[in-house]
Amino acid sequence: MKEIPLSTGGVTQVSDEDYMYLSQFTWQQYNGTPVHTRIARRTVTMRYMVAQRMGLNFEGKILKNTDHNSLNNQRDNLRIATYSQSGADRGLPKNNTSGYKGVSRRGKSWMAFIGVKGKNIYLGIFGDAIQAHAAYCEAAEYHFGEFARAS
């Protein structure tokens, strides 16, 4: 693993075999956006450039950082996901008030739900948020497998 400095401060991590090629470009990141550069008036992200060098075919799909850290662009930290898998892999929404993904307050009880292929699936009403979250986690594992993300 090697590090490439960013023009906006900080560093990004890359695999040894990509270091020489990637270090010829000026890389930047703003407010958590993926690490990117401009080539021929096009913005190109580092992770997509690494995937192309690896020979991955990700047409019609999304390339994700497995550890959710866009500064870690090592080959073993990249994976291809469908749009549905990418949605499942999202973190806790900013407007969440329960503190748990897939859980909301319903009167004095807690309701659990999960979104699958554009549909909300009702998982039940529970006595506390922890029980509701456990139901969400079980459903997420069933529907999304390795892309399930509890928080």
Number of E-state strands: 10
Strand content: 25-35%
Compressed to H and E, one letter per element, the order equals EEHEEHEEEHEEEH
List unreliable stretches of 5+ residues: none
Please provide a written account of the structure:
The two termini are 28 Å apart. The chain folds into 2 domains: 2-81, no CATH class; 92-147, GCC-box Binding Domain (2-Layer Sandwich), CATH 3.30.730.10. The model has no long low-confidence stretch (mean pLDDT 90). It is an alpha+beta fold. It is built from 4 helices and 10 strands. It has helices spanning 16-22, 46-54, 83-88, 129-144; strands spanning 2-5, 11-14, 36-39, 42-45, 62-65, 72-73, 78-81, 103-106, 109-116, 119-126.
